[in-house]
Amino acid sequence: MIALVLVGLLVGILASGTGLGGGFLVVPFLLAMGKEARLAVGTSFIYILIVAVSSLVAHYREGNLDVKTGVLLGLGGVIGAQAGPLILKHVPDAGFKWTFGLFLIGVGVWTISQTRA
Length: 117
Fold this sequence. Notes:
Layout: H1 2-18, H2 23-32, H3 37-62, H4 67-88, H5 93-113
Helix pairs in contact: 1-2, 1-3, 2-3
């Protein structure tokens, strides 16, 4: 139980500072705990919701919000969020792990390539 809180603390710091929501770290952690992919993804959204609301308040206080852009992205996200679980139920655990891992590597490579010295 303490390990979950400590992981949550670490991921919360990383998520609120990067805007990545934390699912990119919570899902692998839950998979390592032996959770099924669908359960890991679904459970991570509870975490993301709580951290996102808290991060939103903190960023609001700092003046770091573009509300219009966020709402427009959110509208598309709501539609995509309904499709995701429907797609995931047809993907085997191993396929999910491979795809998710490759996606994270791709995002990492892209992020590094966008860095200006």
